[in-house]
Structure formats: structure tokens, C-alpha cells
Amino acid sequence: xxxxxxxxxxxxDGPKHGYDLKHAYDRTxxxxxxxxxxxxxxxxxxxxxxxxxxQAGQERAGGPDRTTFAITDAGRAELERWVSExxxxxxxxxxxxxxxxxxxxxxxxxxxxVGYLAAQRAAHTARLRELTAIKSDPSADVGDVIAxxxxxxxxxxxxxxxxxxxxxxxxxxxxxPQ
Length: 178
Prior knowledge:
7 helices; three-stranded antiparallel β-sheet; mainly alpha
């Protein structure tokens, strides 16, 4: 999981407390699943245990005490190691979409499988339109655009695969409507 490293990266420009880290994480990865406050504090606890962050003080801003965390030299070294490491392509194909399509293709009624594939293609196309709108919004910041580009590339690959799969089903089952 990359959350610990994103938090270390966010601490790179100075100490922060968990509340600020959570919001900075969500801004940094604008289209990713938001990070929960509990996950932030649990991750900070593990990072502190491992010597990658340390408590840098307490703040009280009209509410409860907030512990501020700072990255350590060991944390900077670990972050540098992680960022420098090339991410290996996934060794196995394990997407939920693939599993659902494979199960749908097991049905004796191939028309049901085609119906599922067509519905999935429609859902992907609708999401592609949403992301394209984000990219064309003049108020979108660079993080939103980069995240949309990433998601669009993956959706586009899925759509090509869905189209190819529909064509293969049509070859194997002539007469099934696409």
C-alpha cells in the first residue's frame, strides 16, 4: 500500500498533524479513495514505531491537542528508496471485472453474458464521459487532470478489452445479439 509513503512525502516539506495530513492526502490523490482519519493515525503510529516519523510537538487550536509529526532521516531514506524503485507490472491478472466476465461467459445462455458485457461497456463509457468533463473544466487543478488522465487510460484499455471480448463471443456464438 502506498499510503504510508504518501504521508511521508507530505511530511517532506515540514511537520504536520494527522488532520492536515488526511486533507493533504485527499488533495494529492484527488480521484483516489479518501483516506480515513483512523487510517492516518494508525499509519502514523506504525511509521513512528519503525522510526520513519517522530512526534514534533503538540498544538491546540481551539480544540483537542493535536500531535504534530515530522519525517526522520530514516523516513527520508525509506521514502527515497520507495520512490526510486520501479513498480513491477502485476504478475497475475486479478481484476474483479475479468472475474465477472469469465463467470458470465460460463453461463449456458450466452445472450446473458453479452448483456453483462454490454452493460459493463455502457458503465465504462459513462465514467469516461465524466472524467473527460473534469479534464475540460477550466477550474480543474493539475492533480485533478493528471488523475483523470490516469483513469481515462485505464478505462480506455478496459473498453478495448470489452469490445474485443464481445467480438470473440460473437465468433463463438453466431446469432447472439451484441
